[in-house]
Amino acid sequence: MTPTNPGSSRNENGNHIGYDGLAIPEAAGSEFGRTGERDAESSGKHHWIQQLQWFSGLRYALTCGILLFTPHGGMTPRASAQEPPKPVNPYASWQLKPSLIDKDKKEAENISGLACSPLPNPVCVLLSDEQSNGRYVRFATYASNTLIPQRILQLLDPISGKETDTEGAAYDQGFFYLVGSHGVEKKKGEYAKDRNWLFRFRPDANKTTQVERTNAIEPLLASLPDIKGFACPRNATAPCRSLQEDGVNIEGLAVGDGQAWIGLRSPLLQGESVVIRTSIDGLFGQRRPDDAKLYRINLGPNRGIRDMARVSGGFLLLSGKSRPEADQEQEQPLPATVLYWSGDSQPAIPIATLMQTGPIQKPEAMMLLSEDKNEWRILVLGEGKGSVTPKEYRLPKIK
């Protein structure tokens, strides 16, 4: 993908405004690295413009971290989260039927995760981080552009359990996996035990006793030098960091090949989002997971991971605002973007800005419906007033 200059625009004369804020006549060209016309008559006239543009483009490229030096001394553009993603409109609007409004309005307006078993008979789990009792997950299925909510499964004992704040969901090898936010109580900043679980169960589970759970992510976060200062230990004697203060908040989860990939909305480390990879056996086994690897990913300013999905060769990352406003009623959400990440040290590549999300004010749940050699099909849900209308998007693959 070709790097572009997000600071470029035009003045009242139709000329481009370059990275440094100086007007560049149209004849000089607007693309990074373009040298303009080279005929003898205009070369002297445009020489200073070419020099300015070259240095301006170079400074922008270095700032974004998108240049690689080649063995021959040249420079090659590399995809970066600084490159603006293309706007993509919904391919189709789905319906949630029967409506969840009549069952639990808070659940209906705060969808935080979605995962399904494979076709032809998909079983799905639909998560909400705001529910009347905060302890259950809802099963669902889908057909003909309709997501069909079904029964619920209590994740914790209905008497002793508190809010699980489940944010991320995944399916792999006959199991669903759900992860709590690992954040603190919103008002007091206190440690919240039941937000620190990772759950696992089979699609036919119908009793709490059939749900496995582990709190192994909690000590894992505390063992990572870059993260532990943002996490809330269970023995904390003072209020911990809230989400507004960059405290730990998990919102993405992907599972496959014996590994769990945990996507953080917060904190950002020097402006970069975080994914932690560790083994499933380590999380659910008797031993403490000691193979964790932390990845830093540039999603753009104040952008964290709101969800993630495994795809062929890597992951799709749904990004949104990392730190919310103190007054959430006045908060202006960032447009949701989707990036492709290969799962290693390579930068994430912007794919799309999701347009016309409608009543989904803050997209938080993304599921891969299918993929082929040309595109990914995804379904997106999130927070929204009234009954949420799921949106299907078709995202072009990188060529």
What can you tell me about this protein's structure?
The protein has 2 domains: 9-77, no CATH class; 86-396, Tachylectin-2, Chain A (5 Propeller), CATH 2.115.10. The chain is globular and about 50 Å long. The protein contains 4 helices and 27 strands. The strands form 7 sheets. A 5-stranded mixed beta sheet has the order 6-24-23-22-21, with no helix packed on it. A 5-stranded mixed beta sheet has the order 8-12-11-10-9. Strands 7-27-26-25 form a 4-stranded antiparallel beta sheet, with no helix packed on it. It is mainly beta and 399 residues long. Helix content is 10%, strand content 38%.
CATH domain class name of the largest domain? Mainly Beta
Q: State the strand order across the main sheet.
A: 6-24-23-22-21
CATH architecture of the largest domain: 5 Propeller
Q: With helices defined by DSSP (H or I, 4 residues minimum), what is the helix count? A: 4
Structural class: mainly beta
Number of strands: 27
State the separation between the terminal residues, measured CA to CA: 8 Å
Number of domain modules: 2
Q: How much strand?
A: 35-45%
Range of helix content: 10-25%
CATH topology-level name of the largest domain:
Tachylectin-2, Chain A
**Average pLDDT for all residues:** 79
General shape = globular
Q: What is the gyration radius calculated from CA atoms?
A: 23 Å
The major sheet is characterized as: 5 strands, mixed
Low-confidence segments: 1-81
Summary?
This protein is mainly beta and 399 residues long. 10% of the residues lie in helices and 38% in strands.
